[in-house]
From TrEMBL:
<keyword id="KW-0152">Cholesterol biosynthesis</keyword>
<keyword id="KW-0732">Signal</keyword>
<keyword id="KW-0756">Sterol biosynthesis</keyword>
<keyword id="KW-0479">Metal-binding</keyword>
<feature type="domain" description="Nudix hydrolase">
    <location>
        <begin position="106"/>
        <end position="224"/>
    </location>
</feature>
<protein>
    <recommendedName>
        <fullName>isopentenyl-diphosphate Delta-isomerase</fullName>
        <ecNumber>5.3.3.2</ecNumber>
    </recommendedName>
</protein>
<keyword id="KW-0413">Isomerase</keyword>
<comment type="similarity">
    <text>Belongs to the IPP isomerase type 1 family.</text>
</comment>
<dbReference type="GO" id="GO:0006695">
    <property type="term" value="P:cholesterol biosynthetic process"/>
</dbReference>
<keyword id="KW-0752">Steroid biosynthesis</keyword>
<keyword id="KW-0414">Isoprene biosynthesis</keyword>
<dbReference type="GO" id="GO:0046872">
    <property type="term" value="F:metal ion binding"/>
</dbReference>
<keyword id="KW-1207">Sterol metabolism</keyword>
<dbReference type="InterPro" id="IPR000086">
    <property type="entry name" value="NUDIX_hydrolase_dom"/>
</dbReference>
<keyword id="KW-0444">Lipid biosynthesis</keyword>
<feature type="signal peptide">
    <location>
        <begin position="1"/>
        <end position="19"/>
    </location>
</feature>
<keyword id="KW-0153">Cholesterol metabolism</keyword>
Amino acid sequence: MVRAVWAVLRMVSCQGAAALNLNVSGSVIDAASSFRSVHVPFRAAHSKVRHLSSAVRMPEITTDHLDKKQVQLLSEMCILIDENDSKIGADSKKNCHLNSNIDKGLLHRAFSVFIFNSEEKLLLQQRSDAKITFPGCFTNTCCSHPLHTDSELEEKEAIGVRRAAQRRLEAELGIPMAQVTPDEMTYLTRIHYKAQSDGVWGEHEIDYILFMQKVEMACLIPTM
Ligand SMILES: *[C@@H]1O[C@H](CO)[C@@H](O)[C@H](O)[C@H]1NC(C)=O
Ligand SMILES: *[C@@H]1O[C@H](CO)[C@@H](O)[C@H](O)[C@H]1NC(C)=O
């Protein structure tokens, strides 16, 4: 279960570090510390990433405590990329999110969607407690990965990534695909993002930032 909340985005600095004031149940939370996208300029992080072409060996990781849905998602194939976002292969979501592989330079393509309403409030979600990375954290509307499929690999005007966003907005937030078509999404930029969630799991991705404004979204009834 994810939870959706409308919040006012008060300020985004040029570094992209978001200062977000979130009013949940009458109390104001500064969500900056749990905001998932710590923006690093795309080029600046290059030197830290080593090119990885050899096969990645899997350590023994138990997923017994995860629910069935999350385990199923872990076998989806993500798009492996180099530091310049050129595709170099495919690997499972599980392998892509293990710190042991990230430490060796494994990098995949991802996206972060930000949906604003007519009042320019940003739709946030609270991540499910069942997620392997950042369970329970508040984040922007939807973050996920394009899959290694013909449709989502297509790079022209970031169409593959925008299709993936449409797919995940339905899966995570129940927004019908007809209400969030790829042509309504504006691809702004890419960021290179790396963060550990815990000792085992983490993120290392080049993240396509997608913005869209929906005047009406009757289907979506956030908790606030
Ligand atoms: C937060 O919400 C409460 C109740 O709706 C309201 O009284 C308060 O002014 C809000 N605070 C901010 C900073 O928006
Ligand atoms: C990425 O692009 C930079 C600048 O063009 C280049 O120096 C570097 O070798 C490229 N990296 C890879 C892995 O191709």
